[in-house]
Amino acid sequence: MLKKLQECLNYTFKDEKLLIEALTHKSYKKPYNNERLEFLGDAVMDLVVGEFLFFKFQKDSEGNLSKLRAALVNEKSFAHLAQKLNLGACVFMSAAEENNDGRNKPSILSDAFEALVGALYLEIGFEKTKHIALKLLEEVYPHIDTQSLFKDYKTKLQEITQADMAVTPEYIVIRAFGPDHKKQFEIAVKIQGAEFARAIAGSKKEAQQQCAKIALEKLGQL
Asked: 114: annotated binding-site residue?
């Protein structure tokens, strides 16, 4: 599987131990796992996508660029990229995690993808890693634009509730959990004091958007 993965990347690791570390989930109980490489890869992808969007959308505001980046740099997006590489089949994990559908878990796939990017960065540097990452990104998201990548569900929900109910949705942080470099937020949205939805995401803004989307679906507006 590692050979096939490297063929998909069009790159063969000189240090195979680095690749193995990038694909080792913490449940595998080795002296090493992919969490540190995941941390590095997250930072690399943030810069890769940020630079790409900066030059591609030269007339867009900082706000729009931030929304575009948030739509691409997140667990769901990275899980899609991991699936394109069939990364789930390559991850080393415990039997218990595998039996719990670990090879298809978005969180594990996303973490493995970030760790893989971190490993590539250590081996070949930023420019070559960027080339590999952008090629993959454009294969999975052939139409990268503001319409296809993000929808502002939060604004739409507010417009509807203000027009129909004369109220503004209230977003409440239920809890924050996880390591500092991979913090997760659980957010609830209330309308007229009643909870309509909850969502968990890697940022408060993303969780709020997911809450708003669920609320809009319940209101029959999507």
From this structure: yes
